[in-house]
Give the backbone structure.
Amino acid sequence: MAAPKKGRNASAQSKPGRSLVLILIAIVALTGGMFLSGHTTPRLGIDLAGGTSITLTAVNEPGQPNAINKTNMDTAVEIMERRVNGLGVSEAEVQTQGNNNIIVNIPKGTNSEQAREQVGTTAKLYFRPLLQREASAPTPETSSSSSGSGSPSPSASGSPSASTSASGSDEPSSSGSPSSSATSQGRAVTDALKADETPSASSSASGTPSGSPSPSASGDAAASDTELQAQYAALNCADPDQRSEAGKAAKPGDSTVACGQDGGVWTKFLLGPVAVDGTEVDKAEAIFDTQSAAGWKVVMDFNSAGAKKFADITGQLATQTSPLNEFAIVLDDQVVSHPYVSTAITGGNAEISGSFTQQQAQDLSNMLSYGALPLTFRESSITTVDPALGGEQLQAGLIAGAIGLALVIIYLFAYYRGLALIAIASLLVSAALTYVIMSLLGPAIGFALNLPAVCGAIVAIGITADSFIVYFERVRDEIREGRSLRPAVERAWPRARRTILVSDFVSFLAAAVLFIVTVGKVQGFAFTLGLTTVLDVVVVFLFTKPLLTLLARRRFFASGHKWSGLDPKRLGAKPPLRRTRRPAAPVDPKEA
């Protein structure tokens, strides 16, 4: 039984090159993937690369004094994270502070400006029927920006409709006050929606509602409509102050006024009660239609309740004439789109097609998918982090790491001498793996290197060096017992291996718990610490131990040179134990 065991040990000792080749292949493959991906450096977080920190404060809406609660705040955080992550922004942090504040940290980089704009737009999303619209005269402010979308149209089939019939710039009212015909049409649609009846084509054209409300209801509606028409007539959407206040106090069940851009021109809108809430949009996606001239369009899916409401409202609007056959997509009291309807849209899905650019289609789909927040927010503060400050912090962190590494190397050379070369080589391999994997994790999972993560990498230097020291000391213990180097290397490994695994398991467990129970930048420290702990096990098993096995065959180490760090005399080794035969006792002739 002993002979086969010895043969297996000899075979294992004679082929440490396999492990070295394996880790070399892994390093080459990961490095090649890093260069092929185009991400040759780790992504930097907001504290190192610079960026923007936004504080949003929840405000109570009229009639909802208890809306600000933990459930709604947590829901708002989740939706904001999805909105920002939907734009591909790395390490954007969204977290609550206190009872009514949300902090959003957006690092500088790809899509960061777009994310800042969409986070600032706190996104109360509604679908309202359009009663009237009128374009304002272009001003230097409004003419400098263009929505690029004339008038998108929803379609059940996927083929685009003519976009000119709903363009606010094609059919503006002739005066600031609405015409009597438009007023009667607005009342017709509002009454029809309140009565939940479908108006006929003749009633739409004549402006007479198909339903017949009672005299008292008619009086109340007329008074309300008169006040609303006065607001609409006085509204000037070219004025930023009026634009920001338009429709702020409106409840979902009331008609209201709003502003929006149409072809680069600010336009005012008179809108009916909310027909579909934005929370009922299940999914929206921007796609490019290659089968027609529609170009970029937005495809929407509703949940079951939203699908029924959307089918009802589009069925009612399809019987109206322009602009009463349009519905407005209202985001934070501002009209972002007003497509027209040519037929009832059933099935729980629809598409908005028109003169969209790719960016406009993606922005609209992102707002539709993630924009319906349960609360209204205002920006309390916006702080910009200077990249130069982050660069100074990174430089200071790297200097601290370099000093720590230099002290470790000095200690290794002073105490372990030649063995220090193995430790330094192992540290370099661990550093290379850490750098490559961090660079790859940036585009893969959005990992970004922040200052706490740098601290975690510096702490990992000590953890990795500790594993080498445990193994070296076990080898030295075997030499002190009088064994030669090659048997000492193999006999020391099982005991050192158990100690290294237990130590690294404790470090990884601490990192995992810290990652789970913390938020924000502290997670960067925990993630880096856990990653480097796993890499420590890989390096010790596949590089450090095989390399020491190979070097133990070299004369410099095997002979116990005084600079090898394994000199038996310097270690106080015991002389080898030799068995001596006791002289045989004389045989008594009598007993013989």
In short: Confidence is low (pLDDT under 50) at residues 1-13, 139-219. The two ends are 39 Å apart (CA to CA). Residues 53 and 210 are 53 Å apart (CA to CA).
